[in-house]
Every structure is written in structure tokens, then in C-alpha cells.
Amino acid sequence: MNTSGDRLKALLRECHLTASDFAANRRVTPQHVNNWFKRGIPMARLDEIAELLCVNSRWLRTGEGVKHPGLASSNDETSPAQVPGQHKPAAADDIEVPLYNESLHPDGSGKTRVVRMPDCTVRLSCSTLQALDVSPDQAICAPMIGNSMAHRIQDGSTVAIDRSLTQIVDGEIYALEQDGMLRIRYVYRLPGNGLRLRCHSSREYPDEVFNAVQVQAQQIRILGWVFWWSTLNSRRPRVPCTLDE
Fold it and tell me: How many CB atoms are located within 10 Å of the residue 167 CB?
């Protein structure tokens, strides 16, 4: 990767964001993003995009230095030696948790399944996990797919899930797998082991009700309780004028 555009393209791939999704989030056209891929990111937007994607702006611009904020440079002789293939947390208070996502089933049926993404992790704060009594070995992350939970959780956000909490507490947000699809929903219990799934945008997406037979037939399983999410701001504020000092 020789240009900032190459690095941007790779970062969006790591975050499972399409160029169109990223363009919509930044309120630019997909052609703008494609131009950035080819010609590099404009200097005026480097810091903004670097902060959004949690990388150092210097690395994004030149490819030099440390990729993620807080990481010691691999060329720093004072930094401790690292075992190849291992990632050093960004800070002592951070841990890396595995990322899960939908992936095509290998049987060629065209269906998806929810699996762990190889070599993909997300950094979370240990203090956040401790505050919510989440065991680090039970935490995983996944992307929010679609706008069914907007405006609370935006499309493309990352959510963190506690796999140990699969017992349903009515009205809490859970990650679930339904016939191979990854879904983030408010979940409610119904008599007879049924389920009610509710979106945040309930006017656009009516509640879905499943009886026990349908839950089993559609292979609905609770992956865990959603305890954290990173929601991107949908727009950059417009400054009406510049004040002279």
C-alpha cells in the first residue's frame, strides 16, 4: 500500500464497510470516495478520517509510524519484543476481542452463517467490561448491519456482546442469529417459549413475533447481550462563518 487511498480502502475492508456506506456516513458521493482511493485522501479530511477509523493520521497519510494510537513502534528499540502474529493492546487498560460477522456457508447454498472473522479483533476498554461485569473471555464484537436500529445504533457501527448473558430480559438489546443472519434487536419473551423482536425504528419495521415452533424452524439463537456500541455521527456540522481573532 503506497498511498493514503490504498490504506483507506484496506481500512474500510477491515471494518466491513463499503465505499457507498462510508460515503453516506461522511455525506459525500461514492465518486468522492473512489477519487480518494485513486488520488489519496485530501489533507483537509485526513485527521477527521483517521480519528473516525481509529488510526494515526501520520500513518494514514504516509504509511510511516504506528498504525493505531497508543501502540509502541516496532522500530523502537526500547519497546519489548513481540511474538509474531500477536497484537499488543493499544494501552494497558485495553483488550482485543474477536470480531464475528456473516459469512457465506461453504456448502455453496448461498446462505450465510455467523462466524468469527480470522485475524480480526476490536479493542475494548477493560474498565468498560468491569463496570458492566462482563468477563473478557466472554466478550465478542460484531457489525451493525442495516438501519433497523437507527437512530440509536447506526448502520456500520460495531457492537460488543456478552456471550454469557443469553437469558432474555425483556426490552434489552441482544445479538442473535436467525437462519444464518446476524441481527441486533430488542428482544421480549412470549408465553410458550415464543419471542418478539423489535427494531428501534419500529414505525418502519413492525415487530416480528415467533412461536416456539418457528423459533426452532428458523434456528433463532441468542448470541448474547449487547452492552456497548460505537455509533458514528451521521454528518459533519457546517460552520456558518469563521470568526476572526
Answer: 9
